[in-house]
Amino acid sequence: MGPCRGHPARGRAAAGQAPAVRDPLPVHFANSLREASLALAATGRLALATRASGLAVATLETLALSSADPYLPTMLAAVLVDHAANLAQTGAAADGAETAGRAVDLWRRLAATEPEARINLAQALGNRASCLHVLGRHAEAAGAAGEASDLVRAEMRRSSGSCRCSPTC
């Protein structure tokens, strides 16, 4: 009997291969925490937003240790950006700067192979610049803000050459 077409994991097991099973629940949980964090922040409930984004970060970091899911680094980087912003808005600029630095590092690695991640890198750099400015680390803030601006300008130049919506665009 050949592999089961309707259930690929069972088919692989029947063929003598290890099944590729991933429990999606923790990823959905982390994503729900992120969405809750964004909604709470939008309504001014920053302490709860920060707790939710912190739990999302912890969940994704734990998952990243035990999973080869290629989407986890992107999701973790996005949640780190959100968490850094929440920390900064609650007055924890030092923690925000550190968290934004982790987001920058992760987005930088992702942007090396995924050019569309550069705009997310720019956002993370902007968050880091804001936190560093609040901390009085103006030279570092200016460097991060300058790099973010350079990335945004480069993306605008790149995307303006590919637009075909009108002759004047």
Task: Walk me through the topology.
Blueprint: H1 8-14, H2 25-42, H3 46-66, H4 72-89, H5 93-113, H6 118-134, H7 138-160
Structure report:
The chain has 169 residues and is mainly α. 74% of the residues lie in helices and 0% in strands. The longest helix has 23 residues. It is globular. 31% of the residues are buried.
Summarize the structure.
By secondary structure, this protein is mainly α.
Summarize this structure as a short list of keywords or feature phrases:
mainly alpha, single chain, 169 residues, 74% helix, disordered N terminus
The percent range for strand residues is: under 5%
Number of strands: 0
Describe the largest sheet: none
Which regions contain 5 or more consecutive residues with pLDDT less than 50? Answer: 1-21
Overall form: globular
Query: Can you write the helix and strand succession as a string?
Result: HHHHHHH
